[in-house]
Amino acid sequence: MTPAARVQAAIDLLDEIIAAASGGGAAADTLIARYFKTRRYAGAKDRRAVRELVYGAIRAWPEPPPSGRAAMLAVAAEHFDGSPHGPAPPSTDEEDRAVPPKHPVPAWLARRFDPVVTAADLRSLVSRAPLDLRVNRLRARRDDLLPDFPGALPTPLSPLGLRLPEAIAVEQTEAWAAGRVEVQDEGSQLLALACTAAPGETVLDLCAGAGGKMLALAAEMGNSGRLVAADTDRARLSRMDPRLRRAGVTIVEPRLLDPGREREALGDLVDAPDLVLVDAPCSGTGTWRRNPELRWRLDPQRLARYVKLQSHLLDLAAELVRPGGRIVYAVCSLLADEGRNQAAAFEGRSAMVPEAWPMAGGRAAGAGRILTPAQDGTDGFFVARWRAPC
Question: What is the pTM of this model?
């Protein structure tokens, strides 16, 4: 494919992605994979180049652009030269409309970020993210794995992390196949460490998802104790088994929940957990480096639903945790309503006592701490921790 043909392919894809974002359709990665599945003539270099063009445009536009052409004009105008298989030259009117906003976040969200989040933090949310690995304590030590990943460096904050100099197919490495490493951002590693899960404890991961943080907790527990991994998504829970076997984890009990009726499925755990982790569904504003398209999908109604669900899950955690036990709340969001305001509201209606905890990096944000790419080199997170009265 010529450079101009690659730009035209990116335009076609962006039109699909814009439509999918507004209609709740497939994610950009899925649409890109489908596009090239029917275009076998495109080689690996073409696919990589088109993908970079698409994501370059998505990062440039905090809100959905007028069209794929407008999006690409903002990042590759030099290839709108009318050459074969490429885009036609733009009109003056098109050029005037192909100017993305300078602010990196959607206008309606600008005032909703936590007060400690700076302009540099916001810009960093659409930078490129590094590839981090978490070393599985049950299988290996970090220093022993450095030779397996040439150029990798220990992460600056997490004692379990490796940061790779460039993206590689981690799942094709021997270290991954043997369960010695997992792909996990350093911020997620710090969150798991902030739980201080210990051998022999009873731990409830209330929103386990596919199990990334659950695996980290199991390793901190030395694969000793009881770890209940709960979620409302049957498919995600079913994908845990291969990960558990590979990591050498045997203490996990998957638990499928019915949305809105979670307590019924967890009734046997009342007053049992030493730790309840509420890694709650959220807006994902802290993960825009990896999923910049999320900016196009979020709206006030969806944000309000997340905030309501987070509140419900915190109240559920307070009902379940044992006296003297602890609750850790985390969202990969930098919005005040999902972070400091959510934590403050929970404290106002519960007997939970805020608790300091060991965590490298971050800044104080009300009852919790905030991590950002600009200051900490991690995805964006809010984390808070409480102790239940005895």
Answer: 0.93
